[in-house]
Amino acid sequence: MNSLFDTIDEQLAQAQVRAEQLRAEIDRHTWLYYVLDEPELDDAAFDSLMRELQELEARFPEIVVPTSPTQRVGGFVVGESFAPVTHAERMYSLDNAMDLDELDVWLERTRTALGGVAYVCELKIDGSSLAVTYEDGQLLRVATRGDGAAGEDVTANARTVHDLPLKLRIEHRGSVEIRGEVYMPKSSFERLNAAITAEAEVAAAGKPPKLFANPRNAAAGSLRQKDPRITAERDLATFMYALADTGSIPVQGQGELLAWLKKAGFHVNPNIECCTSEQQVHDFCARAIELRASLPYEIDGVVVKVDSFAQQRELGFTAKAPRWAIAFKFPPEEKTTVLRAITVQVGRTGVLTPVAEFDPVLVAGSTVARATLHNLDEVHRKDVRVGDTIIIRKAGDVIPEVLSALPALRPEGALKWDMPQVCPSCGSPVFRDEGGAAFRCDSAECPAQRLERLEHWVSRGALDIDGLGPKIIERLVDGGYVVDVAGFYRLTVEQLATLDTGEEKYLHALSIKKREETGDYEKEPVLLGEVVAQKLHEQIQLSKTRSFARVLFGLGVRNVGKTVAELLVRRFPSIEALLSAAEEQITDVEGIGPVIAHTIKQYLSTPDNLRLLKELAAAGICLADEGAGTADAQAQPQTLAGLTFVLTGALENHTRDEAEGLLRAFGAKTSASVSAKTSYIVAGPGAGSKLTKAQKLGVPVLDEAQFDALLAGGTV
Ligand code: AMP
User: Fold this and answer.
1) 169 CA distance to ligand 1 middle (Å)
2) CATH of domain 644-713
């Protein structure tokens, strides 16, 4: 006779058998659906299998196993940060070939080194790399790349990615680490950003939504969520393509590895080809470029790998990348969109910059909606008009640019654009710089310039006042508290504490549901408050300790960047010395030309500016630099010694001569042409073939702000 216990044991055994059958079937359908994209079951039938398994596991918790499909979103609590994982084998980056010529150099080199060689060509998926460890066929751990030597443990989150098998589909004993890319499909990326925008509107805090710049960031960000349930909602997917240790499974090359991965249940990108000639590799690259737009995910190139593992070992690695693989990067991507407006920005020194505002487009991996048009001459040279269909170009992470307009698609009556005759901010007349491309609003009262000047004063390189952001400055100006930078030093804690931040909060703390029910959406303004005001006041006082050079830079005199300010202070260690210096004496300073000297003198002879300097002195701002002015301090540290620079295009704040003079003052060399030996190219508006060549050669490109930062002793 069966005892009660026997019956329960029997039920448990039956449940176990049924659960195993269900799991195998669910895994198979998940694989068919997510990996092969060949579903056999409809969604309702799949859901019903899943529900049966969930109910069974709920009834008999002892039969649950970590590899069960019900356990993808586990109740795992991820701590404050992700645990570090040291990679047993380094996760390398790839060397780039910027065009087919560079690719040929690599193909030639590998052929010479190896003799006969076969290559495997793959798409370069624009995602985030993953290392996935399986122990006896079961998923054990997933780590991010990190710095290549160590990454982060993101297992709980990565388990939610449906096409990543929790169990291998083939028998494997021991440990194996599979590597590949996790990515977010283009459509999911767009949906995610749309949802973030909608949510921000509901929250109505007046804050701009924090959107992901591109699908790659969205994938990486989604994988680093504190709550795996959020990752599960993000629609991530993988393509796996590599093995950490080529000895861990019985395959001899990349082609065989991809076949093994497919059999083991991984998602392997179908666009792969084994090539034995250079022509075949070229053809693959050409097809990939064609294919790019129609793929549902982002790719940014083609990866060409030496097929045989033995040959890979022969070539080995550089410090950064394998010698047996190369990433062929796609040429700059171009997209069309419609130009909706050309707006004008007024900078700190009154320069008016036209900005193209167009319908957002996803180009070279990120969404863009505006691009600078630099100046009126550029707008006319490109002949772009509002309503035009325009071509936007972006190479990799480089800033987007408007290439041209398509005249055939121009709407009737579209007018040639012109610079406004009056400043869009203050209505004062606008002047063109003599002999220059810039248009300028010369009014000392211009609110846009005033805001920019105030923001510049508090910025990092200048007086560095933490907590004084653009919004608060705008409020201080609107409230009449601050007119010029001296105004900051007259602010009291009380004034700051009662400052309206311009933000609003709900008057009553209610849940969204309750708010909907009662219709209570009443709001009140948010004031800065005592605590923040006190801190801010302290920061303002602290700025009085900043050096004279920073103060000079902070004044925002046209053409006086950080470096020029430092050069000036070395020679003229106090405001008095500078005031009494003749223009020629200023020109004598190495790195400072007549244009800069003239604007400085002009600034220092304007009564309003003299009054401001007096007020700053009275407030206790540092207007002299002890220790400077001695012969010793005059020696310019040669921080750029050994570097060679090429300048191209126009710079806004320096003439070409001055920029070259500055570089020489810091010990750098300048050259007229780009070569592989060029350390940096500094490119401004109107840059031409030198820039293209530099990009081809992989020479780092600096814009004017980065150039200034480098001179100021910073890094790029
Ligand atoms: P990069 O970050 O530009 O140096 O490119 C190297 C990265 O490309 C690697 O770390 C991988 O994450 C990624 N990658 C994408 N697709 C592939 C692929 N098919 N083979 C190898 N690496 C790839």
Assistant:
1) 25
2) 3.40.50.10190
Structure tokens at 82: 């992700």
Write down the pLDDT at residue 632.
40
Closest C-alpha among 401, 363, 460 to residue 701: 401
pLDDT value of residue 658: 76
> What does the pLDDT look like over 646-688, one tens digit per residue?
998 877 767 777 788 888 878 888 888 888 888 899 988 777 7
CATH class of 4-71: mainly alpha
Q: Catalytic site residue 124?
A: yes
pLDDT of residue 373: 93
- Show the beta-strand stretches assigned E in 507-631: 523-527
Which stretch of DSSP H or E encloses residue 391?
Answer: strand 389-394
User: What are the residue ranges in the chain where pLDDT is below 50?
Assistant: 77-78, 629-634
Closest ligand 1 atom number to CA of residue 92? 10
Question: Which fold does the domain 547-634 belong to in CATH?
Answer: DNA polymerase; domain 1 (1.10.150)
Going by C-beta distance under 8 Å and a sequence separation of 6 or more, which residues neighbour residue 644?
668, 669, 670, 671, 677, 678, 679
Task: Give yes or no for residue 257 CB within 6 A of ligand 1.
Answer: no
Q: Which fold has domain 447-544?
A: DNA polymerase; domain 1 (1.10.150)
Best mutation site among 124, 179, 274, 326 for ligand 1, i.e. most ligand atoms within 8 A of its Cβ? 124
Helices (H), 423-529: 447-458, 470-478, 493-497, 512-518
C-alpha 72 – ligand 1 centre gap (Å): 26
Q: Could you say which DSSP state residue 417 is in?
A: P
pLDDT at 238: 98
CATH entry, 96-329, from 3.90.1150.10, 3.40.50.720, 3.50.50.60, 3.30.470.30 = 3.30.470.30
The Cα-based distances of 565 to 261, 399, 450, 594, 606 in angstroms read 60, 28, 21, 15, 19
Cβ partners under 8 Å of residue 711, min gap 6: 561, 562, 563, 640, 662, 663, 666
- Structural element, H or E, at residue 352: strand 351-363
pLDDT recorded at residue 220: 93
pLDDT of residue 708: 80
Provide the pLDDT for residue 75: 55
Pocket test for ligand 1, best of 144, 147, 181 (most atoms within 8 A of CB): 181
Please tell me the distance from the alpha carbon of residue 619 to that of residue 203, in angstroms, as a whole number: 42
553-568: per-residue pLDDT in tens? 999 898 898 889 999 9
- Taking CA atoms only, the protein residue closest to ligand 1 atom 17 is 124
Structure tokens at 260: 């093994």
Q: Does ligand 1 have an atom closer than 6 angstroms to the CB of 327?
A: yes
- Return the DSSP state at 516: H
**Pick the catalytic residue: 124, 167, 329, 690?**
124
With a 6 Å cutoff on the Cβ, whether 271 touches ligand 1 is: no
Percent above pLDDT 90 for the chain: 62
